[in-house]
Structure formats: structure tokens, C-alpha cells
Automatic annotation (TrEMBL):
The keyword Iron-sulfur does not apply. The chain crosses the membrane at residues 725-749. GO terms for cellular component: plasma membrane. It comes from Daucus carota subsp. sativus. This is Uncharacterized protein. Residues 39-76 form the Leucine-rich repeat-containing N-terminal plant-type domain.
Length: 778
């Protein structure tokens, strides 16, 4: 019996133990299983959703009970609390960040970047998220002052406000309170009016302050004093004026150093040799108003670092190709434009780097030669940018480039290349920018260029191409710039340029042998803002539908980023009456029509006067007849007007004097007559040659008009007669009023009357004595 009892106890204990283990394990699993989100947090998210416009339906998953499964939401697996809200690039719009977010008390990660909050202010309540470690509000169209209360985010490690140019900071002091901050990006935020430049936290490893309008003498402020942990620094586009900032050298572990596009001067200290971890070095485009920044190293210097990226544009690193650069075996990006190099590229180094790992190279605006370029056979892997403009490269087109399928930008302009462009260029299907202007290429333009469907910039200006414009160019639907000017092309004007190239802005076909009429289809191109067809054999009339060129009516175009360079494919060279005008960052403001030196007939269409954004208009050297349109004064932005060498007749419209920006005018050699208008801007254009060859014109700055002289004389005579009439007309009532006042005074004032008569009596006696002295002798 005892044995049975013992066995029963053992069995009960075992069962109890198993039960405990079972339920205990279940409790542990339950503690760490995924919990659905908290109800009030779900409701807060739904309120946020309803306050935003979600045109892309990126929040379509925000339905159902479990908000932890919604797009962009992450929850704590143990508590079910929302800890992460990531709506980066969701395409949301709204005029506020709804305060319902305050219910997400345990939020540690908030990313609202790349949305549109319609110039609303950053809400102060964001400073209440005590657990927040990551805050990204970049590129979201915020406006106003950044709230100082963000300094209360004591756990914050990552802060990104870049890409909000309407934001500003008036007090930098709150940043010093973020003692755990590691990543800070304020690019584009206006700091020009800020004060309290207290030292930034020493914990910062990444500092990006591009185009922040920093004070010129920022070195005199203590803001950078404690930065000893920096790994990456970018202060570009602030136009800082000082010598090389020595505090940078306190960061021997720095990997990315970007100080480009400022006005630093002097020499780089030798202590740069201590920066053994450098992989990115950008010191280019400094000191625009003085001598270039000089890289002061010996010819045998071997850097302690291996760079991947080097940008020394507009620095003096020449005249010899720098030997220290040849020690850089890991280099992928080289930008040495305008760096004073006048030398031959070392072939062995160039080929080894070029073929193995180079992604982008820009050696433009130097005096470099490399005769072996055309003989390179191996194709580089991954090269996307090759810019060699304004050098002495010669020979035929480097055929190996046809095998670089990754190439997107190829700029060989202003060199001495010869021969024909190969058909194999059609293999470069990723190419977006192709520029070979100002070389000596010849032959026909290869039709294979029409395969480059991603091309948006094509410049073959000033070569010796002949034949026809390839019909395959109709395939280039992404084209923004097409420049075939100054060649020997002999073709009918391409009628497809308007309808087939809808994005075309800049069309330059000048100085060829193009013939035929200007097709009405060209008016179908809504974006065209520069049209240069000068010096061809074009006939017919100016299409009246030119008045429908929308871009020229509005006079508006995209404004380019401060960091603009010709590598963006937006440089235009336009010839105007012997002047070669280069447009880069100002290109967005250029609206021009040049049809000069053709055989265009008929009248200037009135519809042309609807192009209120037009800056340049040149119709000279044609057979245009009729009058200058009265509405010429509506072209309010016009700076250059040339209607010379036509058959225009009649008077010059008075409205021409309304063009307040007009600085160059030529109406010579027409049949214009009458008086030259005066007033406003025309008063400053005093050169008689402006009106030469119009025998019936008169007035300043030409001879006076005869009818005007007679009219002026009659005006003088009439004016003199009028003066006499008014003089005599006014004298009578004046005398009468004066006499009346005198008599009234004598009548009402006794003392005046007695004195007056006494005086009259005395005077009468004296006169009588003088006239009749004998009668008054005693």
C-alpha cells in the first residue's frame, strides 16, 4: 500500500511538473509573441491618414485591426506599441502634421521625408517624443523657423532637415543640447540670421551643411570647436572666406571631406598628410575672386590615403599631371577641370585605372593631350561620365567607347578630333548627354544615334557634317537640346521636330543649307524657348501659330540648382551677329527666336507679339514687308531686337519706347518713314546706325524733321501772342480791384482820408508855385 501511495505521489508530482513546464513555457511564448497594436494608437494613425492627401494610395494598407501590419509602421513585439513611422517618399500632401501623433508616445523613429507639407511649419509638439532617436523631415516643403524645442529630444541621434529652402534657424543654441547626436544634415536651411553659435556636440560623426548661407568668417565662431569624431564633413556652396579651416585637421579619422564651392584661400597645410582615412576629397571651385587654391605638395609626395573620389576643380595642381594622383589605385571619380594641367596623361596609369574601376572622369578646361586615347582597346567596366572638353585631344573618335554600355555622359567638345562618327555609337543605349561641338568631325551624321532613346542633350555644333538630318532622330523623344548648327547639312527643314520631340527646349540649326518652309508642326512644341534657324535658305512666311509657343508666352523655365555644371547637359552656345554667347546657369532665362539671313517673306505676324517672355528677336536679312506690328511694345522682356535688312515700311510704332529692357536695337536698311519715337529706353539708344538706310526717317538721333521745325516755330509765335493777351487781360481787373480797395479805405477810415487830402493839397500847392511863381510872390 505504501508502495502504491509512493508511486501515486511520484505520478502526481510528475504531472504537476509537466503542467508547470507546459503553462510556464506558454507564458514565456505569450510574453514575446506579436501583439496587435494599441487601439488609441491605431485611431491616431487613422486621423493622421485622413488629414493627408494620398494621391498614390501608399496608405491603402491602413485598414484592419492590426496597425502593426500597415505600410510604414513598426511596433514593439512585446508591448504592441508603435515605435516606428516611416512614410519616406509616400507622395503625401497636407498643410499640417496632425497632432494625433502625440498618442504614439513611444515613437523612436519618424521619417516624413520626400512628401509635400505645403509650406507649413514644423510643429513644436515633435519635441515631446522623448524616445525619438531618428527624425527625418528632409525635402518635404516645410517653412519658417525650426522650433528650438527640438533641443529637448535628448535621445536623438539622427536629424535631417535638408532640402527645405524655406526653413531657417535663428538660434543655433538648441543643437548643442543634443548630446547623443551623430548625424546632422541642415543643407539648404537658411542660417544667415542665426546667433548663439555654441559648439556642436562632439558625438557628431556626419555633418552636412550645404548651401546654408553660413557666415563668411565662420571660423571665428565656436560651433566647430568640439568636433573630434567627424567621419564625414560637407560645407560646400557656402562661400566661406578664410584660409583652410585648421579645425578639420583635428579629425584624423575623417573619410569624406567636402569643402568645394567656397572662397577658401591660401595653401593646404602639410598636416593633411595625417588624414590617413580619406576616401573622398573635394576642395574644388574655391576663391572665385582671387588666385586659385594651391595644393602645396612636393612632386614626389605619396599620400597616406587612397581616394575613391577627388574633386579639385579650379585648383592649381598643374602644370604637370600630378604624380601623387598616380599613386591612387582605388580612384573611381576624378574631377580636375580647370586645374592648370598642361601635359600628356601618363598612359600606363590612365589605362589601368580607366579600365578597372573608373566611374566618372572630368579633365575639361585644361591643356591635356593623350595621343593614345584612340588606340585604347579594352573597354572600362562601369564608366558613366567622360568629360574631356577644351583640351588638345586629337585623332579619330575612340572606338572602344562604343563598348562602354554604361556610359551616360560623353563630352568631347572643343578638341581636335577628326574623321567620322562611327555607327557603333548606337550601342550606347544609356547615353543621355552627347557633345562633340567644335571639333573637325566630318561625313554624315550616323543614323544609329537615333537608337539613343534616352538622349536629352545632343550637340554636334561647328563640325563638318554633311548630308541630311537622320530621320531616326524622330525616335529621340526625350530630347531637350538639339544643336546641329554650323555644319554643311543640306536638307529640307525637318517637319517632325515639333510633334515627335515634345520635350524640346533648345533647337539650333543655324549656318547650314536647310531649305523649305518653317513647318506649322513646330508650333506643337510647347517647351521650345530657343529657336535659331539663322543663315540657311529657309523660305515662306513666319507661321502665325508661333503665337502659340507656350514657353515663350509665359517666359518661365526651371531655375537651375546652385551646383549646376555643364555635366548636367544644359550648356548652350548661341551665335548672335558674330558673338558667341554661352549660357549655363542663366539658360533658364533665355527665350530667343533667330530667323536671320534667310529668304523669309510676308509680314511679321501680329501673333508674334503674344510672346511676352521673349528676350531676343532677330528677323534681319530677310524679305519681310509691311509694317512693324503696333503690339511690339507688348514684348516687355525684350533686350535684343534686330529687324534690319528687310523691306519694312511705315512708321516705327510709339510702343517701341515701352520696352524698358531694350539694350540692342537695329532697324537699319528698311523703308521706314516718319519721326523716330522718343521716350524711356529709346533715349539711351543714340547710335544713328540703328536707323541707317531709312531715307524717310527723321528725329533724334538723325536729322530733325522739317515739319516738326515749322510746327515748333508756330508754337513759339502763338505762345508769345498768348502771353500778351493774358498780360493785358489780367491788368484791367487788377487795376479796378486796387482802385476800389483804395477808395473804400478813404471812405471808412477818417484819419486816412484827412491825411490823404492834406497830402494832395500840399502837393498841389508845390506844383502851382513851380508853374506860376509870380502869382505867389509876397
Amino acid at each position: 500500500m505504501q508502495k502504491s501511495t509512493t508511486s501515486l505521489l511520484i505520478l502526481v508530482c510528475a504531472f504537476s511538473l509537466l503542467s508547470t513546464l507546459k503553462f510556464g513555457y506558454g507564458s514565456i511564448v505569450g510574453a514575446y509573441s506579436n501583439k496587435s497594436c494599441i487601439e488609441n494608437e491605431k485611431q491616431a494613425l487613422l486621423i493622421l491618414k485622413n488629414s493627408l492627401i494620398d494621391e498614390s494610395n501608399n496608405l491603402s494598407s491602413w485598414v484592419g485591426d492590426d496597425c502593426c501590419a500597415w505600410h510604414g509602421i513598426s511596433c514593439n513585439k512585446r508591448t504592441g506599441r508603435v515605435i516606428q513611422l516611416d512614410l519616406r517618399g509616400a507622395g503625401l500632401k497636407g498643410d499640417e502634421i496632425n497632432s494625433s501623433l502625440l498618442h504614439l508616445k513611444y515613437l523612436s523613429y519618424l521619417d516624413l521625408s520626400f512628401n509635400d507639407f505645403e509650406e507649413t511649419r514644423i510643429p513644436e509638439f515633435l519635441s515631446w517624443f522623448k524616445d525619438l532617436t531618428y527624425l527625418n523631415l528632409s525635402n518635404s516643403n516645410f517653412k519658417g523657423l525650426v522650433p528650438r524645442h527640438l533641443g529637448n529630444l535628448s535621445s536623438l541621434r539622427y536629424l535631417d532637415l535638408n532640402g527645405n529652402p524655406l526653413l531657417s534657424i535663428d538660434d543655433m543654441g538648441w543643437l548643442s543640447k543634443l548630446s547623443l547626436l551623430e548625424h546632422l544634415d541642415l543643407s539648404g536651411v537658411d542660417l544667415s540670421g542665426a546667433n548663439n553659435w555654441f559648439p556642436l556636440p562632439s558625438s557628431i560623426t556626419v555633418l552636412v551643411m550645404i548651401n546654408c548661407h553660413l557666415p563668411e568668417k565662420i571660423d571665428s565662431y565656436p560651433i566647430f570647436m568640439n568636433l573630434t569624431s567627424l567621419v564625414s564633413l560637407d560645407l560646400s556652396y557656402n562661400y566661406l572666406k578664410s584660409s583652410f579651416p585648421l579645425w578639420v585637421l583635428n579629425n584624423s579619422d575623417i573619410e569624406n571631406l567636402v569643402l568645394g564651392s567656397n572662397q577658401f584661400n591660401g595653401q593646404i597645410p602639410n598636416s593633411i598628410e595625417k588624414m590617413t582615412s580619406l576616401t573622398v576629397l573635394n576642395l574644388g571651385s574655391n576663391n572665385f575672386q582671387g588666385s586659385n587654391l594651391v595644393l602645396n605638395v612636393s612632386s614626389n609626395w605619396v599620400p597616406p590615403f587612397q581616394l575613391r573620389y577627388i574633386y579639385l576643380q579650379s585648383m592649381t595642381v598643374g602644370p604637370k599631371f600630378p604624380r601623387w594622383l598616380q599613386t591612387q589605385k582605388q580612384i573611381s571619380y576624378i574631377f580636375l577641370a580647370n586645374s592648370g594641367i598642361s601635359d600628356i596623361i601618363p598612359a600606363d596609369w590612365f589605362v589601368s585605372v580607366f579600365v578597372s574601376r573608373l566611374k566618372s572622369i572630368d579633365l575639361s578646361d585644361n591643356d591635356i593631350n593623350f595621343e593614345g586615347l584612340s588606340s585604347v582597346s579594352a573597354a572600362p567596366v562601369g564608366l558613366n561620365t567622360l568629360a574631356l572638353s577644351n583640351n588638345r585631344f586629337s585623332g579619330e573618335f575612340p572606338a572602344f567607347l562604343c563598348n562602354v554600355k554604361s556610359l551616360s555622359t560623353l563630352i568631347l567638345s572643343n578638341n581636335k578630333f577628326t574623321g567620322e562618327l562611327p555607327q557603333c555609337l548606337g550601342n550606347l543605349t544609356e547615353l543621355t548627354h552627347f557633345d562633340v561641338m567644335n571639333n573637325s568631325f566630318s561625313g554624315e551624321i550616323p543614323a544609329a544615334l537615333g537608337n539613343l532613346v534616352h538622349l536629352n542633350y545632343l550637340n554636334l555644333h561647328n563640325n563638318s557634317f554633311h548630308g541630311k538630318i537622320p530621320l531616326s532622330f524622330q525616335n529621340l523623344t526625350e530630347l531637350v537640346t538639339l544643336d546641329l548648327g554650323k555644319n554643311n547639312l543640306n536638307d529640307n527643314f525637318p517637319p517632325w521636330t515639333g510633334e515627335q520631340l515634345p520635350r524640346l527646349k533648345y533647337l539650333i540649326l543655324r549656318s547650314n543649307n536647310l531649305y523649305g518652309n518653317i513647318p506649322a508642326q513646330l508650333c506643337s512644341c510647347p517647351s521650345i524657348q530657343l529657336l535659331n534657324l539663322a543663315q540657311n535658305q529657309i523660305t515662306g512666311n513666319i507661321p502665325s501659330c508661333f503665337g502659340n509657343l507656350i514657353a515663350m508666352i509665359e517666359g518661365e523655365s526651371e531655375v537651375l540648382h546652385p551646383g549646376f555644371s555643364y555635366l548636367s547637359g544644359q550648356m548652350i552656345v548661341d551665335d548672335a551677329k558674330g558673338y558667341e554667347l554661352r549660357y549655363t546657369s542663366t539658360l533658364g532665362y533665355l527665350f530667343s527666336i533667330d530667323l536671320s539671313d534667310n529668304d523669309i517673306r510676308g509680314e511679321i505676324p501680329e501673333e508674334l507679339m503674344d510672346l511676352g517672355g521673349l528676350v531676343n528677336l532677330d528677323l534681319s536679312g530677310n524679305q519681310l514687308s509691311g509694317r512693324i506690328p503696333e503690339g511690339i511694345g507688348e514684348l516687355s522682356k525684350l533686350e535684343y531686337l534686330d529687324l534690319s535688312k528687310n523691306k519694312l515700311s511705315g512708321r516705327i510704332p510709339q510702343s517701341l519706347s515701352d520696352l524698358s529692357f531694350l539694350s540692342r536695337l537695329n532697324l537699319s536698311f528698311n523703308n521706314l518713314s516718319g519721326k523716330i519715337p522718343t521716350g524711356n529706353q529709346l533715349q539711351t539708344l543714340e547710335d544713328p546706325s540703328i536707323y541707317a538706310g531709312n531715307n524717310n526717317l527723321c528725329g533724334q538721333p538723325l536729322k530733325s524733321c522739317i515739319t516738326d521745325a515749322k510746327s515748333d516755330h508756330r508754337k513759339d509765335d502763338t505762345g508769345s501772342y498768348d502771353e500778351h493777351i493774358w498780360f493785358y487781360t489780367g491788368i484791367s481787373p487788377g487795376f479796378f480791384v486796387g482802385l476800389l480797395g483804395f477808395c473804400a479805405s478813404l471812405y471808412f477810415i477818417d484819419s486816412w482820408r484827412l491825411s490823404y487830402f492834406y497830402s494832395v493839397e500840399r502837393v498841389s500847392e508845390k506844383i502851382a508855385i513851380a508853374l506860376f511863381p509870380r502869382k505867389f510872390q509876397y
